[in-house]
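Section handout, structural biology tutorial.
Before the tutorial, make sure you can parse a SMILES string by hand: atoms, branches in parentheses, ring closures as digits. In the record below the ligand is adenosine-5'-triphosphate, and the chain has 259 residues. In the tutorial you will relate the predicted structure tokens back to the input. Do not try to memorize them.
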Amino acid sequence: MTTPTMIGTHVDVDDLVVRFRRRTALCGVDLELGPGVHGLLGPNGAGKTTLMRVLATVARASSGSVTLLDRDVTRHTELRELRRRLGYLPQQFGYYPRFTVREFVEYFAWLKEMPADEVPTAVDRAIERVGLLDRADDRLKRLSGGMIRRVGIAQAIVNDPDVLLLDEPTAGLDPEQRVEFRDLLRTVGVDACVIVSTHLVEDVTVACTDVTVLDDGRAVFRGGPDELAAEAGEGTDGGDSPIERGYTALLRRVRAESR
Ligand SMILES: Nc1ncnc2c1ncn2[C@@H]1O[C@H](COP(=O)(O)OP(=O)(O)OP(=O)(O)O)[C@@H](O)[C@H]1O
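Predicted structure of the complex:
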């Protein structure tokens, strides 16, 4: 596994284990991430959402340590300050259908304890960045699924977070929106640590500075998109693009080695 050198560590995960009764969702994951856009790939059930939930401080580790922005997430006294500096779009994103887009994003600005005088500008900027300013006064129940996803992204970025966690953010976005979303990621990732969990290998190729692949609760790869593509060697099966073929070849090799 290759580990690029990082300047400034925003996320430091050491030997993270998460168990649900008899099932182990994560078994000894190490991760050190600084600013940039970091892709998180893996098959269904690999542990991506579990990792995101632990980083978002909504799920607990069974063992191991998780440090975000130099704060230990198990220390309750640090959580409040930490949550102000996080942005999180969960995979299952709940919302209040009667809220307007603006009310909903404002509500999250309030939850994140943003100074009241900064809220109106920050809310409008977040809504503009996801391309929904013309729908800002529409109730959420009137929006399409892709638009709701964009509202979810707006609430996650309203506080200009230092750590932004996006679980399947591109699900339901149309191609034009996906392109704009990737531009947004690149801008946010200049200063912040952005972690994007996705099934779309294409998102990783275009928008991510590096990729971590999880398989069966373990981190089995960390490197640049080119390095993941190189995993395919001369192989031409297992996908339509070089990175898809690299990803498939990697998983085949890892599984053969663990037999
Ligand atoms: N609350 C829970 N109770 C029991 N098992 C769970 C729970 N949450 C997750 N798991 C199990 O942990 C493992 C990892 O699940 P997780 O949702 O993190 O995977 P994922 O990589 O996000 O999958 P997907 O790509 O399908 O969203 C799976 O085997 C899943 O069944």
